[in-house]
Design goal:
single chain; 406 residues; mainly alpha; two-stranded antiparallel ribbon; 15 helices; 2 strands; 63% helix; 1% strand; globular
């Protein structure tokens, strides 16, 4: 909203109003506002949750410090959602299709997570929203994102972009014509680092490209479901999911800035995605919101995000990665989420297999997800969180480095 207001002021010749046209300026202001909103209004929301006695219920898992968490307010994901939406609406271009999709993602998964927490807290049903309804909601979002990517004329890419210092109207028109609808994405560690999903169905000949869009949409659904559930599983220790998400958000912000800037895309020889630079504003709001929430969520936590926050964070990360065509890098920069999810899958799968084969179920880990395994081994919670975040930073650096190392 303020973006359009200052754009109007700039047209009237107001001194300094043109600064709002710069992505870097708006991104900086967005991060600050998001951080301030989460810290100031976060405290008020925590008080409301405490008055409503919206506290976490604790199951006896035999973990150190477990009962100290009893009664800690949950549903704190509302703080994150508000802190993302407010600055994004204020400083982003609201007509930008990428911003629209990210706002829909935030509200959509925030609603699903809120319903889940509501059932747990107010209905006293520890199972929360049935799994099939969660999956249905995630699939619905995947369809919305996938079909928008397919039908929207504003979601295009440009291969082998060429940066020119003198952009004449004729040259701008010529360069714009190179924008194409494509199922191509970025594949790490390869020199020609663009992979087309049409390659998977190349045997279909002239039907390969239409079918590739179907494959792409199915992949989008899978990624959104997997990453949002991965973030949900990671949310088990104070500050773990929040800190990890902040690191991932910073990585995605770098990707959006580079992919949406013709000069840097040309220099790095990466796919140029017109209009996607506006996602830097959303990434800044995301980072500010998670860092601000960490103020209250760090050990010992004053509030938990609940599914309201964890499902939303995971979904935002998934959709953001898809829009900047970095979904194949998710196993790297979302490595913490991946390992946490795999630990649960392996634990459950191995237990069922050994029980069927030998009559007694055996476990790979002392407890899953993985962070609870280290708790069982006697590691203090802050040390586990800190070490996981260090690994997260290393994975983020590796992800960014892949843009140049091929």
């Amino acid at each position: 909203m303020l973006y359009y207001l200052f754009q109007y002021f700039d047209s009237l010749g107001f001194p300094g109003a043109g600064v709002f046209q710069y992505i870097t300026f708006r991104a900086s202001i967005t991060a600050i506002v998001s951080l301030v909103v989460s810290m100031i209004y976060g405290k008020k929301i925590i008080r409301i949750l405490q008055k409503k006695q919206i506290g976490e219920t604790i199951r006896d898992l035999g973990l150190e410090g477990q009962y100290q968490k009893k009664g800690t307010p949950t549903m704190g994901g509302l703080i994150i959602i508000i802190s993302i939406l407010v600055p994004t609406i204020l400083f982003a271009q609201l007509h930008n299709i990428y911003i629209i999709l990210m706002l829909i993602t935030t509200l959509w998964l925030g609603t699903i997570g809120f319903i889940d927490d509501y059932i747990k807290v107010f209905r006293k049903n520890k199972k929360g929203l049935k799994g099939k309804f969660k999956i249905l909601g995630q699939v619905g979002l995947g369809l919305i994102v996938g079909l928008t990517v397919y039908f929207s004329n504003d979601i295009v890419i440009r291969e082998n972009p060429r940066f020119v210092n003198t952009l004449t109207p004729e040259l701008i028109e010529k360069e714009t014509q190179k924008n194409i609808k494509s199922t191509k994405t970025t594949i790490p560690f390869f020199k020609d680092n663009e992979f087309d999903y049409a390659y998977l169905v190349s045997f279909l000949g002239k039907y390969a490209q239409p079918v590739a869009w179907g494959v792409f949409i199915l992949l989008i659904i899978f990624i959104i479901t997997a990453v949002s559930n991965g973030a949900n599983m990671t949310d088990g220790l104070d500050g773990l999911a929040t800190g990890t998400s902040a690191i991932i958000g910073s990585t995605l912000g770098v990707f959006a800035y580079l992919s949406g800037n013709l000069k840097y895309a040309d220099y790095l020889n990466i796919m140029y995605i017109p209009f996607s630079s506006e996602l830097v504003i959303f990434a800044s709001a995301f980072i500010g919101a998670t860092v601000g929430f960490l103020w209250y969520n760090s050990f010992p936590a004053q509030v938990f995000m609940g599914d309201t926050g964890s499902l939303t964070l995971g979904g935002i990360i998934a959709v953001f990665a898809i829009l900047v065509r970095k979904e194949l890098l998710i196993p790297i920069f979302c490595g913490i989420f991946l390992v946490e999810s795999l630990s649960v899958i392996l634990q459950v799968g191995f237990f069922k297999y050994t029980k069927k084969r030998f009559g007694t179920g055996k476990r790979i880990f002392l407890m899953a997800p993985l962070h609870h395994h280290y708790q069982k081994k006697g590691f203090p919670e802050p040390k586990i969180v800190t070490r996981f975040l260090i690994v997260g930073v290393l994975l983020a650096i590796v992800s960014i480095v892949t843009l140049k190392i091929r």
